[in-house]
Amino acid sequence: MKADNGLAAKISNTCLNCLKSVQPSPEKICIPHPSLAGYEQCGPFKITEPFYSDCRKYTAELDEWDTWEKCYMNEECSRKCVEAYHNYYGNLCLIAMNVPRNLTCADFGHMHFGGPNSCGQENQIVDDMIHRMSLLCGCQVVYENKTKCLSEASTTGSNCVPPAVNKYIGAIVGVSCAAVLILVASVAAAWYITHRKSRVLVAHAGKLTFMEN
């Protein structure tokens, strides 16, 4: 499927790797879905059973893994499922947004964490995950646009953290920013205490002088 504007939405391997890297728990662990009560999300991409049922409609490559449990336990199946899902809904997203550009990894992230209808929509939980993607994978991997990266930095406060090429650098830079903030706070506190002591000494000196007169 292609959008009417001639653009095709196809998720890249780099973006798939990024979606996998920001998942909140180890690959084999299932966790409750944050917004779908009663559903679990499992495997390396944290797919739900409805997600699996949906993605099977758009690819014939999952016949070997004919149940959700078999698929989420298998890296290859999970990846193919996520790829088929995003390639299908990505084109619908292009049509809905009607924008003359290819989809970015941030667009795919919105659909992955918020469902296909969240394409182009604001959602605080989803936006937080996109910000996490930007920190762990690098802003230009997520947005593929230097201008957008600068805008993201100025609006989310992430200007303290430059684009990271991987999660390890992102973590190191994040710690460095925290250390800078702590250092600034410590210097400010030390200045305040010293300044306050100076004022107290001046006051005492004034009082003693007054008493001597």
Give a topology summary.
Elements: H1 13-21, E1 31-32, E2 40-41, H2 49-55, H3 68-72, H4 75-97, H5 105-114, H6 124-137, H7 139-143, H8 146-156, H9 167-212
Antiparallel strand pairs: 1-2
Helix pairs in contact: 1-5, 2-4, 4-5, 5-6
Structure description:
It catalyses: Hydrolysis of (1->4)-beta-linkages between N-acetylmuramic acid and N-acetyl-D-glucosamine residues in a peptidoglycan and between N-acetyl-D-glucosamine residues in chitodextrins. This is lysozyme. Its EC number is 3.2.1.17. The N terminus and C terminus are likely disordered. By secondary structure, the protein is an all-alpha fold. The longest helix is centred in the C-terminal third of the chain and has 46 residues. Helix content is about 60%, strand content about 0%. A two-stranded antiparallel sheet has the order 1-2. Among the domains are: about 110 residues, Lysozyme (Orthogonal Bundle); about 35 residues.
> What is the CATH level 1 assignment of the domain at 13-126?
Mainly Alpha
Give the rounded overall mean pLDDT: 74
CATH topology of the domain at 13-126: Lysozyme
Assembly context of the chains? single chain
* Content of β-strand: under 5%
Proportion of helical residues: 55-70%
**Strand order within the widest sheet?**
1-2
Question: DSSP helix count?
Answer: 9
The biggest beta sheet is recorded as: 2 strands, antiparallel
**Level-2 CATH architecture of the domain at 13-126:** Orthogonal Bundle
First-last Cα distance: 95 Å
User: What is the overall silhouette?
Assistant: globular
Structural class: mainly alpha
The total strand number stands at 2
What is the succession of H and E elements? Answer: HEEHHHHHHHH
Poorly predicted regions: 1-5, 156-178, 196-213
Radius of gyration: 25 Å
Transmembrane segments: 168-193
EC number: 3.2.1.17
Keywords: Antimicrobial, Bacteriolytic enzyme, Disulfide bond, Glycosidase, Hydrolase, Membrane, Transmembrane, Transmembrane helix
Pfam family, one: Destabilase
